[in-house]
TrEMBL record:
Protein name in the entry: PQQ-binding-like beta-propeller repeat protein
Superkingdom to which the source organism belongs: Bacteria
Stored SUPFAM superfamilies: Quinoprotein alcohol dehydrogenase-like
Species annotation: Nannocystis radixulma
Amino acid sequence: MNPRARNILLVVGAVTAINAIVCPRMWQEEYEETYLKGPVTDTWSVSAFDPAPVVLPGASWASLPARTSDGKVAGWIHEGAEGKFVALDEATGRVLWQASTGPVPAGLVRTDGWRIKESVPAVPLTLAGPGVYLVAGNRTWMLVADGGASVKTGELPQQVPAMTGGACLVDGNFWIAIADSRDGGVMLSAAGVLADVRSDRPAGCLPAGDGGKAKVISSMQNAHTDPTAYAPDDYVRGYPPEVCGKYNKSERRRTGNEWCSDMRTTDGDAKRTVMLHNGDPVFRQEDEWLLVRLPNPYSGGIDFNPSIVGFELAWPRAFFDMTAYRHVTTENNPSSTSFEAKKVESRTELIEIVASIARTGELQWARSVVRGDMPRVSSDFTENLHYTRSLLLASHAGSPTQNLYVFKPGMLLAVDQATGAPRFQIGAPLPPPAP
């Protein structure tokens, strides 16, 4: 038997077991693949997160949270028409301090959940600076002193475009991204002085990355675009052609990155890259790549193959937000003596799952966030499917408590990164917008 035929038989044999060993290397020595291993169960058998202790009952979580190395998570909440800035202990959700920010500005009032095409959350962001926190959204900015002793509020001048959901700390000041179509921004000092000129994105202020198949991303996540300065003529840009490339008949090799998306990393090191290949996660491990295939009924009987719509990284952990749907038909089956009419109803059921997958291909844990009828927010089925999603944000790498935050407009859920056990929750998801 020639070596090529032998490799094909080995691969066919490997797909018959979920806990398969790593398959033979198919193209080059830098690439391996495996099926997801560990406590894998059917998509529709994934259990829900346990109920989390509620912090600040009656509040709605209104901003992307700031996470600091000393174990705090902070952000802006709404209590009715009033705004408040809060800082919480990451381990318990205990309120450390809070400050009133006054009536919620009209431009920051939000009454519904995700909106159509809202891949970058159109909510205020929160960023910690030297002795002060920034809250910025739309055209409004606020600076809240650490400890809550003072709050300073301002608006962007009319000639400055609105903010776009990104900000960085630069030499003790805040650079805030604006919608000027040139990836520009404006500087705000920690004392509240706004620059009167536009500025380019500072070096090291990484954008959110390629949206690709990810339906919700943010530059406030730990996961960022790969910052490696590739040569202009390097069309591969670090992607492994063995995994992502399209076969070029004239050159008799794979080139390009047509089948991969979302090349992002936790800390600027390209060797920690995680990306998606046709919906499956791919992990870079130094100079090698591991493609982890999600199992379906054809790979051994278990069907755990939901669509990945977003992810977050916290070295060495990786977390994925996933959705799946199925069509369900139900009948009431009235008794032979009943006058009740027979009814047959069809509906579309949807499930959202958050999963932790190790870079070696093991499923660490998986929990469902939502399960129920698919909401109708659009005439487009895809928009209805992707409405049920969350933005995932990990704790600061230096924090003594390592949480994963599950964010939906109106809600922030904190869970333990290692186990998926809930720690606390603030608010509840806002209702879907009207179709």
